[in-house]
Design brief:
It is built from four helices and 15 strands. By secondary structure, it is an alpha/beta fold. The strands form two sheets. Strands 4-3-2-1-5-6-7-14-9-12 form a ten-stranded mixed sheet, sandwiched between helices. A five-stranded antiparallel sheet has the order 11-10-13-8-15, with no helix packed on it. The chain is globular.
């Protein structure tokens, strides 16, 4: 049967209307996930760099010069610019003091995470500066703990950090791959590689996952609990696929 509402009946719904209006506004304004590319001032590998039309691009300090060489215009330029040696002109430039808590890469990652961008693909963050390379891995941990997905792209290895999920590699990947626990991890499973694991436990003081290898088959690395670092040889710019567990 049909229920008819008369004008005076609307008064009964008055307390609910503001809640519904706020919910509708929130749903309408939900951020749309968009891939973000961050380019830092470390070692940059041009042949591994790929920018798609809809990518949001952030230059972290000296990464601005790399993007300029690639004819890629950044949407945001951020940092203290000690590496670049000058402050670029433009309205999309955010300048920070050299004495600060975050690296320029971390500043860029925080901007990407705050805008719910996913995945976050980072170039120019690895290289001869071991301290900055380790800081870049910690930035990957920040991205993973924000329930988003990040990649560090470099040579000879690219890498990612996963938690409660998996990385899936198609059969075209070859070369070496290693897996390291960054904290106590459980439910670590490796399929399709030379050495496999099934629901294993790994910890930060156990490098058992070093020097594995692709076999020409589809492969996957997954973890149920804990932060797991996965490194693979960068033979091309192709990236594995993230799978999140429920």
């Amino acid at each position: 049967s049909m229920v008819c509402l008369h004008a005076h009946d609307c008064n009964h719904f008055h307390p609910v209307l503001p809640v519904l209006q706020k919910a509708a506004f929130w749903l309408y304004n939900l951020p749309v996930k968009k891939r973000c590319i961050i380019v830092g001032a470390g070692e940059f590998v041009p042949e591994l760099f790929e920018k798609k039309e809809d990518d949001y691009v952030i230059a972290a300090d000296g990464g601005y010069e790399y993007l300029k060489r690639c004819s890629a215009k950044p949407d945001l330029v951020i940092g203290d610019f000690d590496s670049l040696g000058r402050i670029p002109a433009g309205e999309n430039v955010e300048v920070f003091p050299q004495r600060k808590d975050d690296t320029d890469l971390m500043l860029a990652a925080k901007r990407a995470v705050s805008r719910y961008m996913d995945p976050i693909v980072i170039h120019g963050a690895l290289g001869n500066r071991t301290d900055h390379s380790f800081a870049a891995v910690q930035t990957l941990c920040f991205i993973a703990r924000s329930n988003l997905h990040g990649f560090l792209i470099g040579r000879p290895f690219s890498m990612s950090v996963i938690q409660h999920g998996a990385l899936e590699f198609d059969s075209s990947f070859d070369g070496m791959i290693s897996v390291f626990a960054l904290e106590k991890c459980s439910g670590v499973t490796i399929h399709g590689l030379e050495y496999c694991l099934d629901e294993a436990g790994l910890d930060i003081d156990c490098p058992v996952g070093v020097s594995n290898a692709f076999t020409g088959k589809e492969a996957s690395v997954s973890v149920k609990n804990g932060l797991l670092l996965v490194l693979w040889e960068s033979r091309s710019g192709q990236l594995p696929r993230f799978v999140d567990f429920d």
